[in-house]
Every structure is written in structure tokens, then in C-alpha cells.
Specification:
Layout (H helix, E strand, L loop, with lengths): L3 E7 L8 E9 L2 E8 L5 E6 L3 E5 L6 H4 L5 E6 L2 H10 L3 H4 L3 E6 L5 E6 L1 E5 L3 H16 L4
Antiparallel strand pairs: 1-6, 2-3, 3-4, 4-9, 5-8, 6-7, 7-8
Amino acid sequence: MAISVVPVILLPTMDSERFERCAFSLQDRESLLTVHLAELPPFVIHFHGLRWHRCTPQAECGPGLIAGCDMAVAEVRESPALKHYLKQSQVPDKEAGGLHHFRIYLGKGGCHEAFARSVYGSGHGRMSRAFASFGNSVKLRLGRG
């Protein structure tokens, strides 16, 4: 099967010139990528069940790395990188089947990639994060994550 890059979350703006900075963190066993954009509240991307993350600097991002994920979180389907990771890291079969390869290109913020169970976005603030987290857990229980 061919590799495809499918956008799953669009940032509030597709204008990479509005990107100011981002921060990746682990908070209460949850992985967060907080994206700060000019004149907009921070946008938080949650990686549920994160196994791996990397950031490639903008200068090293070729067209193949950024296609389909410019200012959007995309899933890389049939990812050779994920297949290689699963083979090398000996992830249990039950967990391996639920992992996905996600990618987002943020212009001068580079390209962030993650192998995680699911991804979802939320706005700024604790209530927004709690609502997004609750919605994602329901989605996962229903088998749509």
C-alpha cells in the first residue's frame, strides 16, 4: 500500500508567518505541543499514548517531509518510519496495532513528528484541555481513535 499523508487537525490559521513559538512537554503523563500564533490564543495539540517524538529544524525539512502537514496535524499512513520503529523497539502487538504516525510542519518552528495512539487539539486553558481529553477518551472507547 502507498504512503499517504492525511490532515486530521487544522490549526486556527494556515498562515505560517503567524507562528511565534512552540513548546513540547509531558504533563501528567500527557504529551502536549503548545503552538503560539500571533494575535491568537495558544493552540494545544495532545498526543495520547506517545511512544516517540522528534523535531526536525526548518532548514532540514525537505518537500517530502512537509507535504500535507503545513500548519496542520496529519497522519502518515503506511509509514515506513513507524514500521521500522515497531520492529526495532519490540512494542507488544496489542499496543503496536494502535500506534499512528503524526506530523505537523510549523514553518520556522520546524516539523514535529510523533508516534502515538491518537491526537487531538484544544484551545487555551484548563477547561478546554479537559473537554478535549474527555472527548478523546469517549472516541477511543467507541473505537474511533
